[in-house]
Amino acid sequence: MKVSLFVTCLSDNIYPKVTEAMARLLARLGVEVSFPPGQTCCGQPAYNSGYWKQARESALTLLDAFEDSDFVISPSGSCTGMIHHYSKLFENEPEQLERTARLQSKSYEFTQFLVNVLGVTDLGAVFPRKVTYHPSCHGSRILGVKEEPMRLMKDVRGLELVPLPFAEDCCGFGGTFAVKMADISGAMVTEKAAHVLETEAEVLVGLDMACLMNIAGNLRFRGEKVRVMHLAELLYEGVKGA
Amino acid sequence: MSGPVKGGATVKARAELALNDEFLRKAVRFTTERLRNGKKKASEEHGNWEEWRERGRQIRLHTIAHLDYYLNLFVNNARANGVHVHFAETAEEAVKLTLDIAKHSGARSVVKSKSMVTEELHLNHALDSIGVEAIETDLGEYIIQLAGEMPSHIVIPAIHKNRYQIAELLSKEAGYELPPDTTALAGFVRKKLREKFLEADIGMTGCNFAIAETGSMVLFENEGNARMVSTVPKTQVTLMGMERIIPSWSDLEVMATLLPRSATGQKLTMYMSGITGPRRSGDADGPEEMHIIIVDNGRSLQLGDPEFQELLNCIRCGACLNACPVYRHIGGHAYGSTYSGPIGAVLTPSLNKNIAEWDDIANASSLCGACYEACPVKIPLHDMLVYLRRRKVESGHGNKLESIGMQGFASVMGSAKRMSGIVKLGKLGQKLVAKDGEIRLKLGPLKGWNTYRVTPSLPKEAFRDQWPTLESELRNELREMKPDMLERMKQVAERQKQGGGGGHHG
Ligand code: SF4
Questions:
Q1: Domain limit, last residue, from A88, A117, A146
Q2: What is the pLDDT of residues B399-431, one digit of tens each?
Q3: Cross-strand bridge partners of residue B435
Q4: What is the ipTM for the molecules in this complex?
């Protein structure tokens, strides 16, 4: 069975450590992964802005790259969620529609794959820190990833999970929204970061680097030291030291 | 739509006003939180919320799919009940019909219960222009009428005002100082309005649901004013959007479960009135004459449009506003129209021919989907916002700079080679501005972002550059898979191939 990494353009170019952690965790579980190099971006920035022709060009790189994969695993609920919009994106291209359906059925966000496909929640990780969790909107609302990260964190030794107030409120990223409506987005991320600080957690964890880049960016801007990590990084750090 | 739009021509300009108004933001946060929590509790207590949401959606889908049939049925039954039914294709027609009724009955004053359609038509101004006094009798509507503003929330019109501001406004009206105490303020308004009710020639209402099988209309409210409006004056005029129909009273049971819970978290509003025609001999009260004006004003544009028809399913509960993190920060007036929040951001451009020429309103969303999750009839507003943006681009109204940028995006992301090339250029470029892994420059495209954040700089190597090394390391780290895990994987892969999907949701 061919398990492929869908690195996402953000993790590929800015946060390579996240996908690396994901790959190393999978190797420890016995999953051999491949990295089809033709992939670029899911096309979401163009899709959400209304430039669907341009989005299709980007999306095609994924359809091609993962053609013969059995499982496609990404560190982002938002990018995997975008694949589910492909049926709309390619609605007038019947030959792509079929490939689209195939890609959708085999695509998973990282925690979905661990919990729902492999059936593991305990990776043997130890992480004795106070942690709070931000559920990213697309992962939780489009893909329905809600329980999976909770179960994984529950099985980490020493991890103290403090609930984030207004956790389900968007962090204000929204792709080009953060640029086009900079002040509204700024107000949203400022409030989100304030809620993170309220928890007095040492670590903020999440499943989507775009949102985490946004929140971390505001925390650093304020000079705050809260550590911001993807759950894959946390888990890998936790098994490495265990 | 011409309405008094406060503070600027663009959503950005209006949002900025709101963002700098701490009173407004605090008031909006306070009430939306209360409503949101109320809804959450009520839907959890209901126990079967998701199933009822789906039932509500099905009723609305069915009704709108057969709207001509049910409208006809409603109109025939209402006429048989003695109601004068009128149709208005445009806002102008609706206003003219209303004014004609007022003139014909020699009316000098109108009392109104809360109605978003009359706000959409700016009826108060029109009545005023022919010398008819229109008084809002819903507390929130009365407050914004005094303030000369538009509603900033479809259920709580004065949500943006705190009680001190309200006390100030009402004190001016009273001519003496009123305490900033909700009960005292409501008491003052009630007394003041009592006289108005007795004087009024026309009672004007909106309509939450119109029941086709009996030609009745149903009003939900908490203050009892709608009941007064529809019983005291001699003539009643009801304005309703053409999509307010539901087939039967048994459908109302589902809607009556969804609407109050979604709107305020109540199991039922304090009053629910069903009105079937004017006063009959033997009735204790009720109007002698009754009119219903059914308003299109852009609604039929959504009929038959697969991307937007579901908009007509909306029951105007306001839950999407209360859930929206953008609305939370900018309130309703920033949307610049009668309808605000996520539903307003979609409805306003849609009523105006589905092209988002109407300002940048469809861009004022992070597409987080909280609206969809909150909506009792599951309208995919977050998808519709994207369709609006696409229609704007496809009609050639896209932002020029953005179009160029998106061409660039397609060319870069259309090939992994070109993407890598650009990233390498970026690494060279950032040498000038990055420090300690961060970029703080507030210039060009980074200005908006870096006003509130710092930007991470690009790492030395992208994932794809590390892959050859990582791949060989992974080969060494690879452990043997547990047999049960392998078995699960095989089963899921098999299911995927049969088109059963990958068991994504556990
Ligand atoms: S779109 Fe849905 S949540 Fe928003 S007002 Fe309409 S029915 Fe309520």
A1: A117
A2: 888 889 899 899 899 999 999 988 888 888 888
A3: B438
A4: 0.96
